[in-house]
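[INFO] parsing input record for GDP-perosamine synthase
[DEBUG] input buffer:
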Amino acid sequence: MTTLTNSILEAVREGAGFPEAFTPLHEPEFAGREEDYVADCIRTGWVSSVGSFVDRFEADLAEFTGCSRAVATVNGTAALHIALKCSGVQAGDEVLLPTLTFVATANATSYAGAIPHFVDSEATTLAVCPEALRSHLEECAEKRDGGCFNRKTGRRIAALVVMHAFGHPAQLDPLLELCREWSIPLVEDAAESLGSYYQGRHTGGFGLVSALSFNGNKILTTGGGGAILTNDPAIADRAKHLTTTARISDGWNFTHDEIGYNYRLPNLNAALGCAQLERITDMLQRKRALAMRYKALFKDIAGVRLLEEPQGTESNYWLCTLVLEQFDHQLHTEVLSALNDAGLMARPVWTLMHRLPMFADAPRADLSCAERLAVQIINIPSSPKLFAAPAGAGGDV
Ligand SMILES: *Cc1c(COP(=O)(O)O)cnc(C)c1O
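[DEBUG] output buffer:
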């Protein structure tokens, strides 16, 4: 084992609080009224697609994020699918999205009948690089008929999906500016960024429409779940309609006016979400404290850094992320094995989308920064419970 690998192993072990048992990347935490609210659903019989927790969860999410509306869905992928449809994406269009993302972003694009068009990321936020995207559009796109078109494929470029990787907000201002210039709607994949702010405003409220996820490993969980966020009431109504089988009710009679989706979040899951949202501030504080403890431990280790929240942003530090200085495949593998062998779960970034067999032929920009990041990034244990300040002590350990 190299000295660097050994230093990283010791720092992660200390940062995680010298755990004795296997330590997952991100564990859910149920320390509030979760059990009460779920039991309430069972006692009253309102477990499924109707119930007061769904309405309350949507209202609470809108309030927490500062968006005018939230529509709860069965998972984050479904939320992204409908977000794309609501932003105007149609079959045969292209959607710009980072190659460095979770597969759900590209899958949702395919569900909408569109073709993913992969773009590069940058090393400070790990999100879509505005400069690289600008040059790429100048090289391959043209504006006509009020829209943006790919000159090589002839297809319309119908949206840009920006993903806030591991909770760190993307450079939204230059990306929004670029989208305005090219008449491309911006959609945020905010699945990882609940509780993350860009210049004081919650992520997910910058794009035309955006998606959240409440999967088991996310900041807040409903077991499985997601939500669509928007400040446009017409889009919110359309999202609600599409996710509830496009149902129109008229007293005791109901009908459907287009092909809709059964993407509703069950009341049982929403109950869990309501209780989780009551504790989100506390969970975010402990996650931040954990990230600061890692940051201090990694400060003096040459060859690696803890990815910090970009300037002008507040990150939820969903997954604490180490970035190796070298583009050294062997070192990357060695560190990952050493951590996992020691029971400290660690993961490389997702396989880049353009390397997956189903997207092998998709159009793409130069992706060299993402290619380098793929051998530099290591996610380390980030559960809020790893930072349990002793009662009354507060602050750092
Ligand atoms: C978690 C996640 C999603 C949505 O995932 P679901 O499991 O469907 O809730 C989408 N995009 C990204 C980047 C994610 O991390």
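[INFO] The first helix runs from residue 3 to 15.
[INFO] shutting down worker
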